Amino acid sequence: MLIQVLKSKIHRVTVTEANLDYIGSITIDSDLMEAAGIIAGERVFIVDNNNGERFDTYAIPGPAGSGVICLNGAAARKVHRGDVVIIMAYAMVTPEEGAAMTPKLVFPDTSTNRLPGL
Questions:
Q1: Total number of domains in the chain
Q2: What is the torsional sign of CA 92, 74, 78, 14?
Q3: Can you give the pTM of this predicted structure?
Q4: Alpha carbons 65 and 62: distance in angstroms, whole number
Q5: Which H or E run includes 84?
Q6: Which amino acids are annotated catalytic?
């Protein structure tokens, strides 16, 4: 049996863009993706702290150090520029693997979406 457990979380980043005319996904500063262990194309879950929306999409890397958090396509209707969101990724593991896992938690500066010290 496999279970889903939290693998990665980017906690409280600010939406910088919402692009309805793009094909889909969320563009995330590649520094944040790397710190959280999220890879291009990986399924991610988004929680909007401002309006309570919860949805999933896939991640695409944005320019490193840019602070970009852009919801693309239909997801752009669920957020507004300036909203604070949490981005999470889960892994399918055995219960034994899950019990031993420690998720990667990333806490960027919400005013810049950059990691402390970068």
A1: 1
A2: positive
A3: 0.96
A4: 9
A5: strand 84-93
A6: 25, 58
